[in-house]
Design brief:
Layout lengths: L9 E10 L1 E10 L28 E7 L3 H6 L8 E6 L11 E6 L23 E12 L4 E10 L7 E8 L4 E2 L3 E2 L8 E6 L5 E6 L9 E6 L10 E2 L10 E6 L5 E5 L10 E5 L1 E2 L4 E2 L3 E2 L10 E7 L2 E6 L9 E6 L4 E8 L10 E7 L4 E7 L4 E7 L4 E8 L6 E7 L6 E10 L10 E5 L12 H12 L23 H22 L11 E10 L15 E3 L4 E3 L7 H23 L3 H4 L3 E10 L7 H4 L2 E8 L1
Length: 621
């Protein structure tokens, strides 16, 4: 039912800038670029949401109910779909309600959504309110409930709107009785909007102390949970005219409508002001271009992903005010080339991954032999990480993080030139500290080693003989560190495996292959070891690791620290042989170095954190 039409006119401009890598923005202006759905049967007007939403009466004040993934997972038996809400004068011709709140599923808008009015929704309760509308929602992770702020006239009495609050129990689907907020006055208050963290409440009011007819005000949440005295947003935002319908975006940028920011225009237009988080203020607002704004009135905007919803009385709609929807930002294309140094001739083929800020893969491109790549259909106004992985040099890569811009009615191409590091350069040194050896013991606290040590105490292999009393019996508290120790060790194993893949790289000539240097250093805590203490493990005669220790050798902190380095290295060797490589084939490419550093005398560090090893990996060609 929803058929999209596109209209385009292209002009090309190039803007360049430099940020760690050479980056250029190629902006292809697309005038009147739009996506429009069928409207009323008798018309098709740019952006009008059509007869599914709009009627011959007024539809206005769109708002969103979009719960975070946290809430959707926590309440699987509750309706946690994403909804678009809007206020209508009346969808039912014979009803007596002054205003009615409707909603429809956001994901069904393009397919022909069903518009629903919930009679149990607090704003639709005509026994409580007149002219209730403009709801905004926020999931409260502390109460695990859905907060709602809205404006309404009480059923009897007052003739000006106030702002109310109610919360919904997501287990029972029941709303609490609405309460008036303390920020209300005897004047008109309406159009509330709340920040994602629940700390900032904006609203419109004609109260005293403003700059014009109606101003936008802010109240900040106090530590005791009450709302602070409202503050006028100042003359950067407010004018001598009317400034209202504030709406905060995901990043607290401010959408609002005003008829006072343009000297030569008296119609209402939509503006966007960026949020300055450090000073808790908003920057100079910028007016949206056509088709968002026209010579008619636009108000009540909200943004979902890359789409803006708004109300307008522009010519050609279904009735008075209609709901319109436009793509807010033009398409984003990321393209570029990986290059190597002028004096190098390296293989550039590989893979380019695009991750979002949560490290989810959202785009991919093969990197061709000439280093070129291209990723289409990237969303605007989001943080991304571009990660290049070379097939022949898996440890030689380049990572670039950036935020995609938004250009309304335009296509933006981000051109990234990445430089592959010189092949002969030394790779970054990686150091990983693994704490939590048992007092006096030399094998790391993996689950298998802890179980074996406890079994040794059970059979009196440790503890009774004074030669082994330097080894403590591990209590249950060590169990909570097992995952941390094993995860740290396995991270090193994976890193070594990646380095060995480079050494065994079939892309490289034999003369180009290098040597992997692995240094493992061990430490002991300052606790003394008796003169009669001995090493009672099996004899060690290991030429690869350069260690010879016989059973019965006197135990000292120097020896203990070196044994910790040795048995940690043996863990790496075993795991690599089990899961990754034939170590014997690659052993000539690895140079091991184990060192006992003796006692760690670092101040202000617990003894259990001094019983540790440090692993340093270095790849030299």
């Amino acid at each position: 039912m929803k058929i999209f039409n596109k209209c385009k006119k292209n002009i090309t401009t190039i803007i360049s800038f430099l940020k760690s890598a050479t980056v250029a923005l190629l902006i292809i202006l697309t005038v009147n670029a739009c996506k429009t759905v069928e409207t009323c049967e008798e018309n098709q007007v740019l952006g009008n949401m059509g007869g599914v939403v709009n009627t011959k009466l007024d539809e206005h004040s769109p708002s969103l109910l979009v719960l975070p993934q946290e809430a959707k997972l926590k309440f699987p038996n509750t309706d946690t779909n994403d909804y678009l809400f809007f206020t209508a004068t009346n969808h039912e011709q014979n009803a007596n309600a002054n205003e009615t709140i409707y909603n429809l599923l956001l994901h069904d808008i393009q397919a022909g959504a069903e518009v629903v009015s919930d009679k149990k929704f607090p704003l639709n309760d005509t026994t409580l309110f007149r002219h209730a509308g403009v709801p905004v929602f926020r999931y409260n992770p502390e109460t695990e409930k859905l907060d709602m702020f809205f404006a309404a006239l009480p059923k009897f009495g007052r003739l000006s709107r106030d702002i109310y609050f109610a919360e919904k129990d997501l287990e029972t689907n029941q709303w609490s009785p609405p309460i008036q907020l303390s920020i209300n006055t005897a004047r008109w208050e309406s159009h509330p909007t709340i920040s994602n963290d629940g700390q900032i409440l904006l609203f419109a009011s004609d109260r005293e102390g403003g700059f014009g007819d109606i101003d936008i005000w802010a109240s900040f949440l106090n530590e005791d949970g009450t709302w602070g005295t409202p503050q006028n947003l100042g003359n950067e935002i407010n004018t001598r005219g009317t400034d209202y319908f504030p709406m905060l975006t995901e990043h607290n940028d401010l959408l609002f409508s005003s008829n006072g920011h343009s000297r030569n225009r008296k119609d209402f237009d939509l503006f966007l002001a960026k949020f300055d988080a450090e000073n808790k203020t908003w920057t100079q607002p910028q007016m949206f271009n056509f088709p968002v704004n026209t010579e008619f009135d636009e108000a009540g905007a909200t943004i979902w992903k890359n789409r803006i919803f708004l109300s307008s009385n522009r010519r050609g709609g279904c009735g008075g005010k209609d709901i319109y929807s436009f793509q807010l930002c033009g398409p984003i294309v990321i393209a570029g080339r990986v290059k190597c140094s002028a004096n190098q001739n390296q293989i550039l083929e590989g893979e380019m991954f695009l991750y979002d800020e949560n490290m989810n893969t959202v785009g991919f491109s093969e990197v061709a032999a000439d280093g070129s790549f291209k990723i289409d259909d990237v969303e605007a106004n989001k943080n991304y990480i571009l990660d290049y992985k070379n097939k022949c040099y898996p440890l030689k890569k380049n990572v670039y993080d950036f935020r995609t811009p938004c250009s309304d009615s335009s296509t933006v191409m981000i051109v990234v030139d990445m430089l592959l590091p010189d092949k002969n350069a030394e790779l970054e040194l990686t150091e990983i500290e693994i704490p939590f050896f048992v007092t006096g013991y030399y094998k790391p606290n993996t689950e298998a080693n802890l179980n074996a040590l406890r079994l040794g105490f059970t059979y009196n292999l440790y503890g009774n003989d004074r030669r082994t009393r330097y080894i403590a019996k591990p209590d249950e508290s060590y169990n909570e560190f097992v995952h941390q120790v094993e995860a740290g060790l396995d991270d090193v194993v994976r890193y070594i495996a990646n380095m060995l893949a480079v050494l065994d790289n079939k892309c490289l000539a034999k003369s180009e292959k290098g040597v992997l240097h692995i240094t493992v250093e061990g430490w002991a805590d300052p606790r003394g070891i008796a003169a009669y203490a001995e090493y009672l493990g099996e004899d060690i005669d290991d030429s690869i690791f350069g260690l010879r220790v016989k059973k019965g050798t006197r135990m000292t902190n120097d020896l203990l620290s070196k044994l910790r380095a040795y048995f940690t290295s043996k863990y790496f060797e075993t795991r690599l042989a089990e899961e990754h490589f034939n170590i014997e084939e690659l052993q000539h490419l690895i140079k091991w170095n184990i060192e006992g550093k003796g006692v760690d005398f670092t101040e202000d560090v617990e003894d259990k954190l001094k019983r540790r090893v440090k692993i340093s990996l270095r790849f030299l060609e």
